[in-house]
Design a protein that fits this description.
- The chain is 32% helix and 25% strand.
- It is of the alpha/beta class and 496 residues long.
- The protein has two domains: 239 residues, Rossmann fold, CATH 3.40.50; 169 residues, Rossmann fold (3-Layer(aba) Sandwich), CATH 3.40.50.
- The strands form four sheets. It has a six-stranded mixed beta sheet with strand order 6-7-8-3-9-10, with helices on both faces.
- α14 links the parallel β16 and β17.
- α4 crosses α5, α12 packs across α13 and α13 runs parallel beside α14.
- The N and C termini lie far apart (53 Å).
Length: 496
Amino acid sequence: MDALRLRQISKRYGAVHAVRDVDVAFETGRVHAVVGENGAGKSTLLRIAAGLVRADSGRIFVEDQEQLGFTAAGALARGVGMVEQHFALVPVFTVLENMVLGREPGGFFGLRLERVREAARRAFEQIGASVPLDARVEALGVGDRQRVEIARLLFRGARTLILDEPTAVLTAREAERLYGKLRILAGSGCSIVVVTHKLDEVLAFADTVTIMRRGAIVETRPVHRGSGQEESRALARAIMGTEPLVPPPRPTRRAGAPVLSVERVSLGTALRDVSFQVSEGEVVGVAGVEGNGQEELVRIIAGLAVPDAGRVTHAGTVSVVHGDRHREGLVLGASVADNLVLGELAAFSRLGPVRVGFLRPGLLANAAAARRDAVGVVPTDLSLPVSALSGGNQQKVVVARALARTESGLGLLVLAHPTRGVDLGAARAIHDLVRRLVEHRPIGALVLSSDLDELRTLSHRLLVLSRGTIATELSPDASDLAIGEQMLGLGAEVRA
C-alpha cells in the first residue's frame, strides 16, 4: 500500500516553476530516496507532501485517502512528518520540552513526566541516538539537533518520515547507524523518504530512488543495494544530464608563512589545549564527530568567542563559512544580491565608508552577479529573497561570498561543512574554487567536515578533533578505519 501519494503536483514562485506536474508514490515498509541537483524541486515537493507548503494544483493521498486543505498539523495527525535542513526547535527549551511542545494534554501540568521521558527515550533508541533530555537545544551541536527533530517525529506518532539531508553533518559511521535504524523502522511498517546528494547512501540503503531535474521527475527506479561504481555513475548521469566528472588530483602544496596559529586554546568543556597552524598555500582538514568542539573552534578563530586559555593569531583577512547558514550566514529576508555582498558595502561606496546615497549600485550588482556565476546559483534572479532559494543554493551564496573576500591579499579561509546540502556539480565547483585560490593566492584554508571524501579531495594535512582536543595528525590518504578510530577516541596517537 502507498503510505503517501502525490498526483499532478505543481508549484510556482513567481516566474520560477519549482515543481511541474509531478506524480510519485511512497510505499509503506520501504526507504525511498529522492535525488537531484540543487533547485531541482526536491525539497519543495516534499514540503508540499508534509503540508508545509500549499501546492498550486494537484492532489495528495495519505493511505489512499485524499487530503483537502492539507496543513502541517493535519499531515502529522495523519502520521506524515518532515525534518527540514534547518530545524524548527526552540533553542532555549530543553530537548524534552521541544518534544512535547504542542502535544501536551491539558498543558504541561497534565503530563505524566516519567511516562513522557520514557517515551522520549524510546524515540531516540529507535534511531540509535542518545541525547540528554534535559539539555537545552541551544547547547547542542547541529548533529544532535537533527537527531532531536527525527526523534520528535517518532515521539509524535509519525509513520511516514520525510528527511531532508539527514546525514549532511554525520560521519560515515553515524550515517550507517542511522540508516540501519531507518531500515528497521521501514521493516516495522513505516515509510521513509530521504532527500540526499550522497549516492553511496542511496545504493547502500534505499529500496527505490526518484530522480528530479528542473522541477520534474526524470525517472523512478528500484535500487539494487550494494551495486557498484557503474550504478553510481548511471545515477549521477541521470541527475546531472551529463557524464560525471572525474575528481581532480589534490592541489600541490606550497606551504609558506603561517596565516593561522592556534596555541594551547581551551574553552569550557568544548576545547582542551588545542594547537595547530595553517600556512599560506595549504589546506588543513579537520575531521571529527559532530559536537567535539568544531563549532566552538570556528567561533574562536572568527573572533566570535574568547577562549578561556591560549591564543589565536592570524595574518590578513579571515573569511568564514559557518556550519549553520541560517543562523550565521544569511539574512533570509534580504535579496540574493544583498547576501552575496553582505558586510562589504564600504567596498561599493564612492567615498569609502558607506554614506546614504553614495553606494555604487552598478558596481555592487556586477560583483553580486560575478559571485553568483562563480558557483552557479539558481535561479539567477538576484532580486529574489535568498529564502526563496533551495538549501543547496543558499549554501552556494554563503560560500561564494566567503571565497570572494579572500581575493584581496593575504588571508585565511575557514570552511565548516562547505558543501552541506550541495549537489555533485556544485560541490565540484566549490572544491575547484578553493583549490585555485589556495594555489594562486597568498592564503591558507581550514576545512571542517564530516565528509571524509571531501577532506581527502581538498586537504594536504588532516587533523582529527576528538573530545575537544587534537587527537592526531594523519595523511588524507589514511584509511577510513584509521581515521574513524581516532575520531571515536579508540586509537593510539598516530602521525602519518
